[in-house]
Amino acid sequence: MTEKEKVILAYSGGLDTTTIIPWLKQEYNDPEVICVCIDVGQGKETEGLEERALNSGASKLYIEDVVDEFVEDYVWPALKADAVYEKKYLLGTSLSRPLIAKKLVEIAHKEGAQYICHGATGKGNDQVRFELGIGAIDPQLKIIAPWREWDLQSREDCMDFCIMHDIKVSMSHDQSYSRDRNLLHMSHEGLELENPKLKPKYDNLLQLTNTLENTPDEAEEISIDFEKGVPVAIDGKKMTPKEILTYCNEIGGKHGIGVVDLIENRIVGMKSRGIYETPGGTILWKAHEELEHMCLDRETYSFKRQAAVKFADLVYNGMWFTPLREALSAFVDETQKTMTGTVKLKLYKGNMIVMYLDSPYSLYNAEIASFTTGDMYDHHDAEGFIHLYGLPLKVRALMRMANEEKKNTDK
C-alpha cells in the first residue's frame, strides 16, 4: 500500500472495528482510514460513533441511514419468500450484509478509495457475505480482512491491543458477547453460548425481548393487513414498513416472541451457537405463513416450500446478488399476487395463536369443506378417486403376492 491511500472501514464502533483502526495505521503505512457505519436500525448504537472513530485514528465517519431500503428491499422479499434458515433463523444479519456491501462500494467510489476493510472473523459467515457482495458490484476493489492477518486471537486480545494504544473500550472481559443488531433482529454469540451444555444467561443477554417470566399475564391481539404479501397496516392503521416492523418488535418483545437458541451450520464448515431475538419478524413471518395456507393452491404451496429453503440458503451464504436469487424472487412475487388479506394473532408468553383469517383470494370454500353434503362435492366420487389413487399400491401388492406364491410352489 502506498502512502496515504484510502481505506473504507465497515465500522460499528464495537471492539473489533475499534481495534482495526490503529492496527491498519500500524500495519499498512499509515493510510487514511474512512469509517462507514451503515445504519440498518441499530438504534442508539450509532450515538457517539464519530468521536470514537476520530479518537481511534480515523479521518472521518459516514453514517448512512438505509433503514427504509433495508426493510423494503431486503426484509420484505425474504418475508414473501418465507425464508428461514435451518427452520429457525430469520436471517437478520444475513439480509443486512448485501446492503452494507453495496453502500461500502458506493462510498469507496465517492472517496476514490482502493480498499475496503471489514471486521468479520476468519471463522465467521460475514467475511463471505461482505466479500461476495463487494465482488459482485466492483471486483476491482481490494479487501483487507484483519482477522485473517493479525496475530490477535481473541476479543480479550483486542481489548488489550486497544489499551496498549490508549484507546478506550466500553466493555469488560466478562461482557464481551459478539452482537449484531438491526431493525429485524439482534444476535448474540460468545462467552457461555460457546458451550452447548450451558444455559444462556437470558436475564443479562436479551436486549429486545422479555424473558417469559417477565412477560405480561394478559394476552394481547394484533391484526396485520397484507397487500401482495407485504404488511401494510397494523390494527387497521396504515404504517410505513419501518413503522410496522418497529411496532411488531415492541409488542413481540413485550410478550417474549421470537427468541431462538440455534446450533447452526456456518458457511465455512463448522457449527456455531447463537441466540437470536427477532420479535417483530417472527410475528410477521407467522402471519404471512397463515395467509399463504389460505390463499395458495397445494402444488404452488408445495413448490414454494422447496424454493423457500433454497432462498434462505442463498441469503445465508452471501449469494444475494446472484441470478438464482433474483429468479427466485421473481417466482415469489408471482405467487404473492393473491396474498392480500388480514391475519389476527393472539400473543401470550412466547406463543402466537391464530384468531382470524380473511382474504378476498381465499381458496377455503366452506360448502366443500363442510361435513354437510353440498352440490359441489359428492361423497360417492371419493370411491373412484381412492381406487385410482391407490392402484399402484394394489399392483405392487399383487406382484409381491404372486412372487411369494411362486416361491412356495417351487419348494
Provide tags for this entry.
five-stranded antiparallel sheet; Argininosuccinate synthetase, chain A, domain 2; 14 strands; Rossmann fold; five-stranded parallel sheet; 3 domains; alpha/beta; globular; 411 residues; 14 helices
Any low-confidence stretches, pLDDT <50, length ≥5? none
Could you name the CATH class of the largest domain?
Alpha Beta
In terms of DSSP E residues, the strand content is: 15-25%
Number of domains: 3
Biggest sheet details: 5 strands, parallel
If you compute it from the alpha carbons, what radius of gyration comes out, rounded to the nearest whole angstrom? 26 Å
Order of helices and strands: EHEHEHHEHEHEEHEEEHEEHHHEEHHH
Instruction: Please give the CATH architecture of the largest domain.
Output: Alpha-Beta Complex
What is the approximate shape?
globular
Give the helix/strand class. alpha/beta
Number of helices: 14
Question: Could you characterize what this model shows?
Answer:
The protein is an alpha/beta fold. The protein has three domains: 6-71 and 87-177, Rossmann fold (3-Layer(aba) Sandwich); 186-366, Argininosuccinate synthetase, chain A, domain 2; 370-410, no CATH class. It is built from 14 helices and 14 strands. It has helices at 15-27, 49-55, 67-81, 92-111, 126-137, 155-164, 202-205, 241-254, 279-295, 298-316, 323-335, 366-369, 381-389, 391-410; strands at 6-10, 32-39, 60-65, 115-117, 142-144, 178-181, 186-189, 220-227, 230-234, 237-238, 259-265, 271-277, 341-348, 351-358. The strands form three sheets. The protein has a five-stranded parallel sheet with strand order 3-2-1-4-5, sandwiched between helices. Strands 10-9-8-13-14 form a five-stranded antiparallel sheet. A four-stranded antiparallel sheet has the order 6-7-12-11, with no helix packed on it. Strand 4 (115-117), helix 5 (126-137) and strand 5 (142-144) form a beta-alpha-beta unit. The protein is globular. The mean pLDDT is 93.
